[in-house]
Amino acid sequence: MNERAGNDTSPGDVADLTKRPDEVASMFDGVAKRYDLTNTVLSFAQDRRWRAATRRALGLKPGEVALDLAAGTAVSTVELAKSGADVIAADFSLGMLKAGARRDVPKVAADALALPFADESFDAATISFGLRNVNDVPLALSELRRVLKPGGRLVICEFSTPTWRPFRTVYLEYLMKALPEVATRVSSNPDAYVYLAESIREWPDQQGLARLITDAGFRGVHWHDLTGGIAALHSGVK
After folding, report:
1. Which end of the chain is more exposed for a tag (fewer CB within 10 A), N or C?
2. What CATH number does residue 90 fall under?
3. CA separation (Å) from 49 to 46, 52, 214, 234?
């Protein structure tokens, strides 16, 4: 659950969703200290299940090389590496990478809009809760496709839209009111979670994201809902 934000707000304000890279990176640096704990608390520990589901969906094998983009503190990279594949954690927040320094996986500072990797470098790539926070989603998807080998797999884990209307109503109530309040108690920078709530509400639903991935040139795009559609796994092939 790699949340990116960067503005001065209070829980009652409307967050700035312009997603300026410098502000986003600064925000990440600011939440790094208690990042993993906050994500687990706010998701009611679903973040662990979502990471495992992402690993299974990516279907990594020993000997393959994979990119974990927007990896944050690399907790997701460690999960992916359980497959036996070589997995690189990439993130543009140096503070987040530093906070995950104890995790023994390769780490690279990287901008999702200009990945520092050669064409066709990876067998698979994934980005979890990070695509929503770039300011040019089509370009980020194009970069992911560029660094994948022909036939390479992409899996995106991202917040989405609950499919059952009564549950969706309760979820949005939590998202817009309770989440910033809970973040105030556990996060090192609770203002960031105002942005989190707003950005989730404005993000495309499952079909909308599938169209963006298809438009970027991926084949066989499909999705699988997690936790009733709070999040969804979208998959595609180069």
Report:
1. C
2. 3.40.50.150
3. 5, 5, 26, 16
Asked, for residue 158, whether it belongs to a domain, the answer is yes
Tell me: the pLDDT tens digits for 141-188?
A: 999 999 999 999 999 999 999 998 888 888 888 777 777 776 677 655
| Averaged pLDDT score across all residues of the chain | 85
Q: Could you write out the DSSP letters of every residue in the chain?
A: ----------TTSPPP----HHHHHHHHHHHGGGHHHHHHHHTTTHHHHHHHHHHHHHT--TT-EEEEET-TTTHHHHHHHTTSSEEEEEES-HHHHHHTTTS-S-EEE-BTTB-SS-TT-EEEEEEES-GGGSS-HHHHHHHHHHHEEEEEEEEEEEE---SSHHHHHHHHHIIIIIHHHHHHHH-S-TTHHHHHHHHHHHS--HHHHHHHHHHTT-EEEEEEEEGGGTEEEEEEE-
Model confidence pLDDT, tens digit, residues 26-45:
665 555 565 666 666 676 77
- Report the amino acid identity of residue 102: R
For residue 182, tell me if it sits in a domain. Answer: no
**How many domains are contained in the chain?**
1
Strand order in the sheet with 107-109: 107-109, 86-91, 65-69, 122-128, 148-159, 231-237, 219-226
